[in-house]
Amino acid sequence: MSSVTEAPIEAAGPPARWADPLGCLRGDASGLFNVRLPGEDDPRRADVRAWIAENPQPTPKELYEAGYMVPHFPPPYGLGASPTQVLIIDEELRHAGIRRPPNWQLVRGYVGPLILQAGTPQQIDRHLRRMLMAEERWCQLFSEPEAGSDLASLTTRAERDGDAFVINGVKTWSSGAERSDFGLLVARSKASENKHRGISLLIVPMDAPGISMQPVYNTRGFAGWNMVYFDDVRIPDTNLLGVEDDGWATTRTVLANERLSMSSNEGLVWGNGPSFEELLAHAQDLHSRRPLPRHVTSRIAAGYVQAVALHVMRMQALGSVGQDKIADVVPEVRRTLIDDHGQQMIELWRDLSGPAGVWETPVPDDPTSEAFSASYHLGRAVTIGGGTAQIQRNILAERHLGMPR
Fold first, then answer.
1. Fewer CB within 10 Å: C terminus or N terminus of the chain?
2. Is 295 helix (H, G, I), strand (E, B) or coil?
3. Model-level pTM?
4. Residues 147-165: what's their mean pLDDT?
């Protein structure tokens, strides 16, 4: 890994046959990223654009009522949209500058599908519509100080007491817990020699007596997460999600949804932030002024090949957003590959820009620099958060290749 203190890459004069591997630095290289994408004249785009023209600044409620909040969800919550329709809606909203609420990814990727699949009719009626309209904010209460990627080693207890569970323990890395209305809690409800048994999922009101929080600060000094403490917190058993003591299978569904959600978009950091296309455009601009050295163009070419492959896999993964297909191998493989790719490309942009590439001050003549520098430090975490790269590879080896533990 290159040092962040090194000087910007000097443009050397490589041999012509090396200056531009695969030609990805010449002209418009975005064409391959349109694999399987519907064209601009697709009538479905016209329908979305017409709605946007009538609703240029839609509220979450208006997005929900149009079916655009989670279009792949079945009616009445979504449109039951195909992967192609999902892409069209997402692209048109993005081009119009319309953003879903900040809590949308958690709702779309984890909590919403889980409640829809495993929730009681009362839980679905109470929560699903409200969370999709951003009237309820949710957080995830999974990781613990000694149970992160190996989540089944959790020690937070949910002991039954009549018609309630009494919760004791601590959770960490809980994003947005301090401003959430509800949390999705994984806790041990029964002692078992098999650590994957005796686990239950509970819906927890975040204002319940006995819950306290402590902020966890990132390297920039901001409170990005929380430690959440449970001290004899009583939760009614009507908040049990799924089968008591058999919540691990349900938890795996959440984690699979999380892995898909974190890799379902084109951004380099968990699907967010700048894309490879933006990096490529910046490299093309630099290359047009003075040819970049061979070792740099080789990295760009490798990144281009990876990005195209990941784009094709994204199209395949979008076919797995339904609950019946969430365990498909494509999202698992894509998540494994895209995290490494994102880190490598963020580092490549840093090397193209030099030390200024990680400063908060934008790099002169580079309109994408602010987005990249903001993503650089978070990019350090992408092979850890949501399950480490090593755990992810174990999942693929054991579940899909049939290899021993």
1. C
2. helix
3. 0.74
4. 83
**Residue keyed to tokens 């119009």:** 96
Contact, 132 vs 112, CB < 8 A? yes
User: Following DSSP, what letter does each residue of 119-152 receive, concatenated?
Assistant: --HHHIIIIIHHHHTTSS-EEEE--BTTBSSSGG
359 contacts: CB under 8 Å, gap ≥ 6: 373
* 3-class DSSP assignment, residue 202: strand
The answer to whether the beta carbons of residues 164 and 214 sit under 8 Å apart is: no
Q: CB-hemisphere CA count at 13 Å for 210?
A: 14
Q: Give the pair of three-digit tokens for residue 117.
A: 């699949």
Can you spell out the DSSP letters for 226-276? EEEEEEEEEEEGGGEESSTTB-HHHHHHHHHHHHHHHHSSSEEETBEEEEH
Sign of torsion, CA 188 192 193 197?
A: negative
Mean pLDDT over each residue of the chain, to the nearest integer: 79
Question: Helices then strands (H, E): number in the chain?
Answer: 14, 10
Q: Are strands 223-236 and 164-171 parallel, antiparallel or unpaired?
A: antiparallel
Helix, strand, coil percentages (3-state) for the chain, rounded to 5, are 45, 15, 35
Closest CA to 368 of 261, 260, 264, 282: 282
CA distances from 249 to 105, 140, 151, 200, 262 (A): 22, 17, 12, 10, 20
What is the token pair recorded at 5?
Answer: 């203190």
Note the pLDDT tens digit of each residue in 157-210: 999 999 999 999 999 988 899 999 999 999 999 887 677 788 999 999 999 999
Distance CA 340, CA 270 (A): 11
Model confidence over 43-67: pLDDT tens digits? 999 999 999 999 999 999 999 999 9
Q: Return the number of other C-beta atoms located less than 10 Å from residue 258's C-beta.
A: 22
**What is residue 318's predicted lDDT score, i.e. its pLDDT?**
59
Are 136 and 101 spatial neighbours (Cβ–Cβ below 8 Å)? Answer: no
Quick one: tokens of 79? 């449109």
